[in-house]
């Protein structure tokens, strides 16, 4: 008899292939976590070895629990509020990828609203993000 699979090992099973609706739900769950400043919930969308690249600024973060976690912690300190919405998603189920175009509103601690239009490209394995590429307008808010 085989021992039960751990969550990380079972996450890589074929049963974790997400449908188009599942890919969209993962992306929107991630953005909702970012908007609520819930770092743990945002990180729960990533595999441990995930990479996160802000392509427009040649910035790269490797590792969910270190570099990516730090990126979210800095974002939360930098802004009083963040919001992502007005999504357009395009999913590629066979390759487990989703592209998302969206509007971003960041509110500074002084009350200034900064508006961006961004695109993220996500690669998913086992139901989690393993690679994210961000193309953002305006200032890099993820440094």
Order of helices and strands: HHHEEHEEEE
Q: Could you estimate the helical fraction of the residues in percent?
A: 25-40%
Q: How confident is the prediction overall: mean pLDDT?
A: 91
Spatial strand sequence of the major β-sheet: 2-1-6-5-4-3
Count of structural domains: 1
What structural category do the secondary elements indicate? alpha+beta
Low-confidence stretches: 1-13
Q: Provide the β-strand percentage band.
A: 35-45%
Summed up, the helix count is 4
- The tally of beta strands, per DSSP, is 6
Shape: globular
End-to-end Cα distance: 48 Å
Description:
The chain has 143 residues and is an alpha+beta fold. It has a single domain (16-135), classed as Nuclear Transport Factor 2, Chain: A (Roll), CATH 3.10.450. The chain contains four helices and six strands; from the N terminus they run αααββαββββ. The N and C termini lie far apart (48 Å). Residues 1-13 have low confidence and may be disordered.
Task: Produce the secondary structure layout.
Layout: H1 7-11, H2 20-35, H3 39-43, E1 46-54, E2 59-62, H4 63-78, E3 81-92, E4 97-107, E5 113-125, E6 128-135
Parallel strand pairs: 1-6
Antiparallel strand pairs: 1-2, 3-4, 4-5, 5-6
